[in-house]
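Workshop exercise sheet. Pairs work together: one partner reads the sequence aloud, the other fills in the structure field after running the prediction. Swap roles for the next sheet.
Pair: D.N. / O.F.
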Amino acid sequence: MKSLKKMSLLLILAAVMVFTAACGGGDSNEGGNGEELEGSVVIDGSGTVYPFMARMAENYMGEQDVSVEVSRSGTSAGFKKFLAEDGTDFNNASRQIKDEEKAKAEELGIDVQELKVALDGITIVINKENDWAAELTQQEVVDIFLASAGKKKWSDVRAEFPDEEIKTYGPNENHGTYEFMYESILHEQDLPENINLQQDYSTLVDLVSKDKNAIGFFGYGYYESNKDKLGAVKVDFGNGPVEPSLDSIKEDGAYAPFTRPVFTYLNVNHAKEKPQVLDYAIYTMENAQDIAAETGFAPLTDEDVQTSLETLNGLK
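Structure field:
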């Protein structure tokens, strides 16, 4: 009788183990195709997108035994590393890929997939002590950053503003944010010769925070994480001043003229060769909306996310 009871108990335990495995109790390091994931994922590019992708990588590595390296050399510099023999797996970008970069990819036989990951707003930042330029019209912003406008002093913008030299700041030419300002906001007209351009966004935050006459520009996320040090200009696009925020930064929102999508670009060749690269791309799009909101970006629509996921799942 005892041996019969023991046999029954063993059968019950075996059944429980089979049921657990069938319900997903397998190895947590398995990707979407069931294989165990390992190796690395290498990402470079946009400093603007960096906080988003760094958080994404941190979360992913908490779930998978894969090393994800995220660097921030800037959109343009990142594309040079991406479009190279044995280049990076992803390039984060705060602008779309250029025709000459597409041509380089074709020359190298690299199949590139664009993935829109979030929406960002170019934020005009000022020193905390600046109590006169908290609200500016779109044209006034353009004139401040436009060399040909000749606005050298604050009083040149409005007569009642201080008779003090305007100190302009921004990211350098390696960054897609610089290119967006130059191409989309200034319509390919030159910025002031004396503008202080920097590679590192934390340096820009520090410089503007220490200069009462400073005014600069970068992505909303860097302002959001430094509100204690900086002020943000409310911009009047014609219907009253609009404060940059996750609610106003939308493609059809009140801050739309200064809103742009941000991207990561996937090397499809690598995604087909290395399962962890494709798995990371899918994970990124599945979690893009949550990570965007956590890192100072406006989330994509469900439709945008679904479209990207369908494309990525088609690569399996």
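Discussion prompt: The chain has two domains: 31-119+261-313, 120-260. What would you look at next?
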